[in-house]
Amino acid sequence: MKKVLIAAAVAASCIAPQAFAQTNGASGFTGFSAAANANASTSSTEVRSGNGYADMGKSSQDVSLQAAYGFAMGNNYVLGLGATYGLGDLKYGSSSVGAGNLKGKDAYSIYLEPGYAISNSTLVYGKLAYLSMKGEVRGASEDFSGVGYGVGIRHKLNKNLFLQGEITQSEYSDETMLNTTYKPSGTTGTVGIGYQF
């Protein structure tokens, strides 16, 4: 009987860590990660100049780089802290009211990303971000800041490689250039590929 109990204890000590690893989905999404993303944005920009008002919009695409660090907050919960940087310009539209076309460049974000691992390979998450970009109109420029929020999903293809997709909404402050006030906002769909270190 004593040998049976010892054998059972040894078996339990070997099985328990494996069972925990299978249920601890957060561990696959912790630590440092980097990704490249393709973004498709649809903007809506309020334009005010004197008594004139317009709402202009435009669709555009760009590519962004992402770096993040995930902290395990329990067996299945992860809190991500990260940043993105846009490599292209975004078009925020043109209007007959005001000074002309608004273009956004040097866009970046710093974000918090609370997530829940629904399995060892799949994480769903929400996102809250601080946003910044340089807006340009006919040679004049102004720094815009704002907030972004959204939801996404990340799926591991293997231990390190993952795919992700998300949709976010951005709301920027209003800024004045060339006697015209611009207030951009937009919706962005993102797909990306990344590496979890």
Please supply descriptive tags for the structure shown above:
197 residues, eight-stranded antiparallel barrel, mainly beta, single chain, Porin, 1 helix, 10 strands
By oligomeric state, this entry counts as single chain
**Rg from Cα:** 23 Å
Q: Structural class given helices, strands, pairing?
A: mainly beta
Contiguous uncertain segments of 5+ residues: 1-23
Give the beta-strand count.
10
CATH top level?
Mainly Beta
Number of helices: 1
Mean of all residue-level pLDDT scores: 84
Described by strand count, sense and barrel closure, the largest sheet is: 8 strands, antiparallel, barrel
Order of H and E elements: HEEEEEEEEEE
Q: Approximately how much beta-strand content do the residues carry?
A: over 45%
What name is given to the CATH topology?
Answer: Porin
The geometry reads as elongated
Q: State the strand order across the main sheet.
A: 1-2-3-5-6-7-8-10
The proportion of residues forming helix, as a percent range, comes to 10-25%
Description:
11% of the residues lie in helices and 67% in strands. The protein has 1 helix and 10 strands. The chain has an 8-stranded antiparallel barrel with strand order 1-2-3-5-6-7-8-10. A hairpin with a 4-residue loop joins strand 2 and strand 3. The protein is elongated.
List strands and helices in order, with pairings.
Layout: H1 2-23, E1 31-49, E2 52-72, E3 77-86, E4 90-91, E5 103-117, E6 122-137, E7 140-156, E8 161-172, E9 175-177, E10 180-196
Antiparallel strand pairs: 1-2, 1-10, 2-3, 3-5, 4-5, 5-6, 6-7, 7-8, 8-10, 9-10
